[in-house]
Every structure is written in C-alpha cells, then in structure tokens.
Write a structure and sequence with these properties.
Elements (H helix, E strand, L loop, with lengths): L11 H13 L6 H14 L3 E5 L2 H12 L6 E5 L4 H9 L3 E5 L10 H7 L4 E4 L11 H10 L5 E3 L7 E2 L2 E2 L6 E5 L12 E5 L2 H11 L3 E3 L2 E2 L10 H33 L13 E3 L5 E4 L4 H10 L15 H7 L7 H9 E4 L7 H15 L1
Parallel strand pairs: 2-3, 2-4, 5-8
Antiparallel strand pairs: 1-9, 6-7, 6-12, 8-9, 10-11, 13-14
Helix pairs in contact: 1-8, 2-8, 3-4, 3-7, 5-6, 8-12
Bound molecules: pyridoxal-5'-phosphate.
Amino acid sequence: MEIPVANVFVGEEEAKAVYDVVKSGWLSMGKKTKEFEERFAKVVGAKHGIAVNNGTSALHLALAAIGAKHGDEVILPSLTFISTANVVLYQNARPVLVECDPKTYNVTADIIEKAITKKTKAIIPVDMNGMPADYDEILEIAEKHSIPVIWDSAESLGAKYKGRIVGSIAPIHVFSFFPNKNITTGEGGMITTDNDELCEKMKVLRNQGQDNRYHHIVIGYNYRMTEVQAAIGIEQLKKLERVVVEKQRIANVYNKEFAETRHIWPPFVPNYVSQHAWYMYAVNVDGHRDEIVKKLKERGIDTRLSFPPIHIQPVYKEMFKFSENSLPVTYAAWSRLVNIPIWPGLDKARQQYVIDTLIDICE
Ligand SMILES: *Cc1c(COP(=O)(O)O)cnc(C)c1O
C-alpha cells in the first residue's frame, strides 16, 4: 500500500477548459483571468480579486503596493513558508520574526503587539495549515497602531472565522494555487481586497508598471496570470466546497480516533474557527517525530514535515545570526508536528490503515 500525503483533485472539466483556451488563441491575461478574478472575489465576499502567477508574487505585490521599503519593519510569524519572509527582503525591508501560540501554532495579537515599533510598516499573519488565526484580535491591534495588514491566507481558502469566510475579513488577503493547496492552477495566486486604490496600484504593478499600454508610471513586475491557469481556476473554484467538506469528514475521523490515544495529539481548533480549511492535518507526536516518519514510510504512508521555521533556514540564520533558541516555542512546536494524509478521495479503508499504523507505531 502506498498512501500519498496529498493529491490533486483535477479531472475532465479542467482538461476541457484548457483545451478551449488553447484553441481560442489568447493565452495570457484576458477574459478568463477576469472571469476567474470576479468569481473568486464573489466566493470569498470581496470587492476585488487580482490574479497573479503564484502566491509569492501575490504577497510581494501586496507589500509593494503598501510601499514597504528599506528601513521599514514587517512583522510575521517564523512558522510559515519561506515566501512570507522573502517578499519582505525583496522590498529591502526587515522581517521581524515572531513566535506562535503553543496550542494553535498561529501568531496572536499579544505576540504581534510586543514586536511593534515606530518602524513597523506592515503585519503579515498566517493561517497555519488552513486554520484561521484570531482575526478580530489581530486586526484590532493593527488598527490601534494604524498598521496595514496583509493576511497570508495561502493555506486557508474555504475556511471560516466566526461564520465569516476567509478572503474578506482582513483589508488584504493573499492566496496560492500551488498543486497542494485547496484549489490549484498549477502555479497561481490571488489577492483580494475591498480597497479600490490598492487594487489599482496592484494591477499596475502586476503588469510592468503600466497604466496604459506601453506607458510605464512605476517600476513594476510581470506577475500576470495566464488564461490557461485562469481556466483551470474557474473549474477548480466550483469544486472548492466539495474539497473542504471531504477534508472535514476525514479530519473528523482522525480527531475522534486520536482523542483516545496517549501519544498523538490532534490539532486544537478554537471556538472562533467555524470552518478549518484543512490544508494539512498536523498531529503532534511529541518527542519521536523523525523515527515515526521513518516507520510510517516503511509501511507505505507518506507524510510531510511542516515548513521548518524561517529562523532556522540557513540563509536567514546566517543573515540575522539566529539559532534554534531564538524562537523556542516555534522550534519546539515544529519539531513535534507531522502532517498525515488528507485529500479528497482518501477512502475509509486507507484512512483506517493510516490510523491503525500510526497508533501502533506511537504506542
Ligand atoms: C503556499 C504558500 C505560499 C506561497 O505560494 P506559492 O504559490 O507557492 O508561491 C505562501 N505562504 C504560505 C503560508 C504558503 O503555504
């Protein structure tokens, strides 16, 4: 038996949509991209959607539009994917890495507030593994200090916080459509906002800094989405709800089974989370993670470690002279977590095999 940790949920609909785009003869940013942007914004309840070539570009575009520059600080959790921090350095600003909560693994308002200085230009909270962080608390702190927020929602498409869908809660949300995310376009990203002015700025920056054809008013980028990506995205968006329902069903079974064990801690989901997006299902296996991962592999079960925290990445460690102990809560959390299989189509029998095997190894 070979059970992957994640799987893409694409089929005939996407294949046909791509065929039609190719036949149409218009391959980059056009009607399909506009349609995808509009449909996406509608699904998450935002006024604008700005489609780009990947999630990292989406983060960068948002930070560039806010005007982060040399001398500015940007607060973000260390427990995230590398691009959340890299885009800060793309702008020559300074990433201020902060801890996570030891129970939710998300950043909190208290942690952020302690890191705010006169130089803080932006805050980038992250919904780790698809679980919304405490939006109200964090947005209140940001508002109190008048600091813009770019929410890295790359992993939380389909999630809900206090009944509100992720994508229109913060002033700016950023999404990724990499193949392991809840919907995919191969590579792709989206920014959502209600702010007209920021939307215009981001659209200009996305398209080589042009406000009109070959009329460049700022130094921009080529972050355009292709029509092929957009066509796939339109079909994928129709499947989003099914993906989330299916992942929730799988998560429910895991939650119930692991609650009765002594060595496996299922994810803690606070009350303010009305829907987890279950990008990943991370269990805390305490002290023997690497051994457990190895034994699972031997028995045909694929796992993934969470992204190692930014502060232990060689390039950041060197640049800022970090050690594991620089952010001990984050390091300890990461070293105990392992992501186990969760994807639409993971059937009961195979899930039961994962459960039985993991419990057997841990006991
Ligand atoms: C996937 C991801 C990104 C970046 O997305 P890409 O589309 O791969 O560039 C950014 N932040 C987080 C938290 C992610 O999980």
